[in-house]
Amino acid sequence: MKPPRARRSGPLSPCPPERPVLASSAGRSDPNPEHRRAAMTAHTQTDPTRPITRREAAAAAGIAVLALVVRLVYLYQIKGHPLFTRLTGDPAAYYERAMEILRGTPTPPHAFFHSSPLYPFFVALVARTLGPDLDSVRWVQACVGCVTVVLVFFLGRRTVGTGAGLVGSLLTAIYVPFVFFEAEYLEITLVLAFLIAMLLLLERATRSPEIPPALASGLFLGLAALGKPNVLLFAPIGALWLGLRRDPIPAGRSRGRRLAAVAFVVAAGAAITPATVHNYRTSGDLIPVSSNGGINLYIGNHAGAQGAFRVPPEMRFDLRVASHQAAERAVGHPLSAGEVSTFWSGRALEFIRAHPREWMSLMGRKLALFWNHYEIPNHYNIYFVETFAPILRIPIGSFAVIGPLGLAGLVLAWVRRRNVGLLVAFGLTYLLSVVPFFVTARYRLPIALVLLPGAGFALSEMAAMARRRQWRATGAVLVLVAVLAAGVNVHLIEFSFSPMYNTLGAVLGSKGDLGGAAREFTRALEADPADLSARYNLGRALLRLGRPREAARHFRLAVGLHPRYYEAWLGLGEASAMAGRTEEALRACDELLSMSPPAPPAIAAKAESLAAGLSAGGTP
After folding, report:
1. pLDDT in tens, 419-446
2. What distance in Å separates the CA atoms of residue 90 and residue 286, rounded to the nearest whole number?
């Protein structure tokens, strides 16, 4: 009896070849069925072409609902607080620009200065659709934040696996800085949504070099640049990523990669073109998005810079106008918006050339601050707001946790050959686009889009290794997380609540509560006696309360701390005149008018008028 003939596996055989055996790290088949099952599951979860199961879709929907609940709770907790009933700083500028748009003035008469030419149009659209109530934009931005949560899941699914994507999405839902900034009248919520969409579409275009996803990805990058111009640095990096990837593709499609790369850059440029054209028409300068790059570079690179956002006292009222006037006073002739930016960039470069060691140390500090747990404020302080909004105290929803987990997860994913190259490329590019300027919580926020999928991968992998009883590997990852956490959570910087008390006082003063305003300004000075803005504001409040002698004392202290504080010199003159101290008032006016460079014209005119009235024997 002949033995049965072995079946041939080939193109003519009706039987498919046997499924290849998954090999262990040693190159031999793994005899442990649990390990083989885990490896097969990991392969299935990282296949982006696999349809999403009902369970996965339900989990993603549940996370989105959780995200919405967290945001609604936060909006409820801040509703009615004075800080959220008036807009100040950049939010006030954006809102006023939006109202001008609704009144029929779509563009300002000057080059765009604030980072986002697009955001006022968004605010105007919401106000036109839902009404001008301040909460309308906050509700819409909360919904945009929920969309970002879902997109993080899809990006994580395509890069680190479905399970890790779900965990990363869950962490995004409760990530406190996202929740906090979604209630601010600032462009960052839209920027995050645009960037996550850009990364998701770029990843898709990388796998299949087609023009439509590359065009859409570039368009989203351009839209993000209309909120954060520094992200344009990623345009050439994204194009190189598309054009030079060596992943296997069908024959004849290499040309498609190059076309996709070109489409990516062209779409990004097309998105910012309206802003560029407007800037050229109004200033005659080629300014791609906004003209604040020069002053921002100077703020981050000058003698006394600490790596955070600290505006010189004389520029605190309106950075665009004050920086422009200061530059013109320094050169002695009018300047265009582009020339002003060039002037401040030159001042920053002079500092770098004159003090290379100090600058290198400053860059190292900014790099450390970028990865530090502390959320550096440049408008509202998240730690102050959490005193009356306890939802912001979610322990795991902070950079102190997400930072170390995300970095460890990206390292682990890279070692496991997961598809995180694009995330790493974007993260490094974004880091390089921020550190030369200065670090704030809002400016570093987009790095979380890279860290959150990484954190999801770290947690899901540690859980999987623990289930497989791979204690040594689990311990190694935990050690890595602990080392990174120790570095991230070093105490480097801390801001007092003085600016927040100062802002609260300004809001109360705008409502006519001068007593409450003076009380908050006093609290600000108790927190930081060197806060010039609070000192000046307290003087103004006391002056309006009819207490000129007390007001003069605070103005006197302000000019003692900063001798070129034009507004404080004017306040001292006015307070002294009201208190009957004519000689002191005239000295204050003379000091103000004799400064070089001279005071801004509006302030100088008031001082001249006051001095003339006093010299004639009149009253202020």
Report:
1. 999 999 999 999 999 999 999 999 999 9
2. 24
Domains in the chain, number: 2
For residue range 285-313, list pLDDT tens digits in order. Answer: 999 999 999 999 999 999 989 999 888 76
Q: Rounded CA gap, 169 and 157, in Å? A: 10
Helix ranges (H only) for 489-513 are 498-510
Same domain, 94 and 202: yes
Phi-psi region of 208 (alpha: psi -120 to 50; beta: other; left: phi over 0): beta
Specify whether 110 is located in the same domain as 169: yes
For residue 75, pLDDT over 50 is answered with: yes
Q: Could you give the CA distance from residue 175 to residue 188 in angstroms, rounded to a whole number?
A: 14
C-alpha separations of 110 from 39, 189, 321, 603 in Å: 59, 26, 11, 22
Q: Are residues 187 and 283 in the same domain?
A: yes
Distance CA 46, CA 19 (A): 19
What digits encode the pLDDT tens for the residues 478-521? 999 999 999 999 999 999 999 999 999 999 999 999 999 999 99
Say whether both 60 and 199 belong to one domain.
yes
Rounded-to-integer distance, Cα 117 and Cα 290, Å: 8
pLDDT at 171 over 90: yes
Q: Does residue 19 form part of some domain?
A: no
Asked whether 320 and 113 are in contact (CB, 8 A), the reply is yes
Distance CA 370, CA 429 (A): 13
Q: What is the pLDDT of residues 127-144, one digit of tens each?
A: 999 998 999 999 999 999
Bin 580: left if φ > 0, else alpha if -120 < ψ < 50, else beta. left
* Distance from C-alpha of 422 to C-alpha of 241, rounded to nearest angstrom: 8
Assess if residue 331 is contained within a domain: no
> Do 189 and 442 touch, CB atoms closer than 8 A?
no
Within a domain: residue 296? no
The DSSP secondary structure of 391-459, one letter per residue, reads: GGG-GGGSHHHHHHHHHHHHHHHHHTT-S-HHHHHHHHHHHHHHTTS---HHHHGGGHHHHHHHHHHHH
Beta bridge partners of 481: none
In a domain, 80, yes or no: yes
d(CA 222, CA 206) in angstroms, rounded, equals 19
Indicate the pTM of the whole model: 0.88
Determine the structural domain holding residue 267 and report its residue range: 54-288+379-488
Q: Which residue has the higher pLDDT, 322 or 39?
A: 322
Q: Where does a domain end: 488, 506, 522?
A: 488
Q: What are phi and psi of 279, to 5 degrees?
A: -60, -40
Quote the DSSP letter at residue 478: H
- CATH number, domain containing residue 512: 1.25.40.10
